Amino acid sequence: MGKIDELIKQFCPDGVKKVPLGDVLDYEQPSKYIVKSTEYDNSYNIPVLTAGKGFLLGYTNEQTGVYAASEENPTIIFDDFVTSFHWVDFPFKVKSSAMKMLTCKDKVNSFRFIYYAMCEIGFVAKEHSRHWISVYSKIEIPLPPLAVQKEIVEILDVFTGMIDNLQKELEQRQKQFDYYRANLFMFKSNIKYEELGKLCLIKGRIGFRGYTKNDFVEFKKGAISLSPGDIKDNQLHFDNCSYISWDKYEQSPEIVVECGDILLCKTGSTVGKTAIVQELPWKATINPQFVILKNVELNNKYLFYVLCLPCTQIEIKRLAGVGSVPNVSQAKLAKVKIPIPSLDKQQEIVDKLDTFETLISNIKQEIELRQKQYEYYREKLLTFE
Computed over its alpha carbons, how large is the radius of gyration of the chain? Predict the structure, then answer.
């Protein structure tokens, strides 16, 4: 940081000035870049982007109306309603008119520095209305001289570069996992199949034992009530769990969660979402959106991997129907067919897939660590006090 401090003392003896974003950024409406068809296909070569969390929606074969972003001429795509944004340095099309393409007004400032400064704003949209012209463009950011901007960008680009490389490695590992999983489950035609209900107990919360708001209690004042939101990437996370009273927990001993159990979402938009319980930090039960699979008669981790297969997920969603609230009954779930190789083969499959799962998990942890480092230094470098 020494060089940056010296430059600030040299060029900004009275402190770093602040300027509204609208003074340094131009915007363009997306109308002529909107994709005509949403029939996306990975074999096409033009990405279709959103400024929201999804970012990449798919690929189109439309060759006209492409925004010609590049490393030399990047842009920031800005969601005019929720105010999320992304840096883009490759050609693309967009799906929605609810965004703006932002570019730097001149060469006096570093566009990349302005992007990093925007990342520190932390504005939260509270109304469903357009924000760039009325609000966001008026937000002020610190704007030191170009020499300081470049030094800060050079440091932060190291961190974002590491994160980008790790993301690419994660994508490759995930593709490897998907490839080997598909091959490991290509059984011979004489493989035995059995109905899920004959391989385990399938239990859910009985309707009249559902929750009221009075059943919820403070952290560890009762038992954890697991919900589909506690599953991310087919793994349970206990950071934001709800808790219910001990009385409510004890009403349903048949759905008390134990290590080795498998949880499956039976209703709602996340129907089919699955996790295996590998550890429990506290006594736990399930909420009404889950069923719990107990007393599994085969390798429970093998069954978990079968339930996560794309073909199994498609079957579960088919059974759930297409109503406003998809729902698959326990009786229908019990009829789902499961391939049953030998126990040795089950263990072989589990061992191989576990190896990839560990690699993927380690990369995700590394990404999380690097992201925290990046955010720490970004805040430190962009706080001119």
Answer: 26
